[in-house]
From TrEMBL:
Gene3D superfamilies: Aldolase class I. PROSITE patterns: D_ALA_DEHYDRATASE (PS00169). It catalyses: 2 5-aminolevulinate = porphobilinogen + 2 H2O + H(+). Pathway: Porphyrin-containing compound metabolism; protoporphyrin-IX biosynthesis; coproporphyrinogen-III from 5-aminolevulinate: step 1/4. GO terms for molecular function: porphobilinogen synthase activity; zinc ion binding. The keyword Metal-binding does not apply. This is Delta-aminolevulinic acid dehydratase. GO terms for biological process: protoporphyrinogen IX biosynthetic process. SUPFAM superfamilies: Aldolase. GO terms for cellular component: cytosol. It is an enzyme of class 4 (lyase). Pfam families: ALAD.
Amino acid sequence: MSDTTPEVAGPVVRPRRLRTTPALRRMVGETSVEARQLVLPLFVREGIDEPRPIASMPGVVQHSRSSLLRAVAEAAELGLGGVMLFGIPATKDAVGSGAIDPAGVLNLAITDVVAEVGDALTVMSDLCLDEFTDHGHCGLLTPDGRVDNDRTLAAYAQMALAQAHAGVDMVGPSGMMDGQVAVVRAALDAGEHTDISILAYSAKYASAFFGPFREAVDSSLQGDRRTYQQDPGNAREGLREVLLDVAQGADLVMVKPALAYLDVIRRVRDSVDVPVAAYNVSGEYSMLEAAAARGWIDREPAILEMLTSIRRAGADVILTYWAAEAARLLAR
Ligand code: PBG
């Protein structure tokens, strides 16, 4: 034995043995990503005939009513878990009337989509006012410009009923108002919509990674959302928000964004029994796309690695702009 070879007590322990062949690696793999776990967020814009590209999200568009239907038919074909719909109205006002109007763009889109795909997909809708308000906040404002929690709750209750009448399967309250899950649940139940489920955006952080989304929905927001979305450093508080939402009747809870909050996803997964969703947000999408466009990163394996990391952290369901593409990659 040479001086440089360390002495070992027994045979070398060889984890590499399980990495010998693709078949063996596949068999012992701990984490999988499946099409059924992926939800595709889709934007529909009032008053356009052709889809419009979103410059900061290459490959993602604002749909017209008809191009939206092609996208959801494809999502169903690919076996995705669902779609999450966001509406961009032609006109906005201080109270976000377009969100409640039965003829508002989102409510019409829900009806169209349900007619197109039936039960093949879970049809979800964003339940928040920011796409509909001219000030861009997720709620109604007080005369001095603060977001009024309880008046906003009343608007969310009406919005929930409008989406229910349109035929939605699941609503996604995303405005981070206190008590929003309880109010939405009560409104749905009082309207005999006990089967409509709630995906609560429970631990939602005031994140720079939402940047490209603001272009996607033509947001008019000035300032920030720090009085309602959470401070990025707060994991324990994220768990508190999750537990409150579960107590109020959330059927699923969500952590958002995903990548910078994998530890929060893990804590939540270990603390509740409901399914946990994570939102792989616009900025996470765009930064990978931008690097890939420059040839700095190998796009397809990077997409799958990101989604795998979110699953490994504990997410049961992932909202991702790559849902359709990932389903195609996973099928080959
Ligand atoms: C609020 C909402 C936002 C996102 C989803 N729902 C924006 C925000 O809170 O500012 C962001 C999604 C993304 O960045 O992909 N309606």
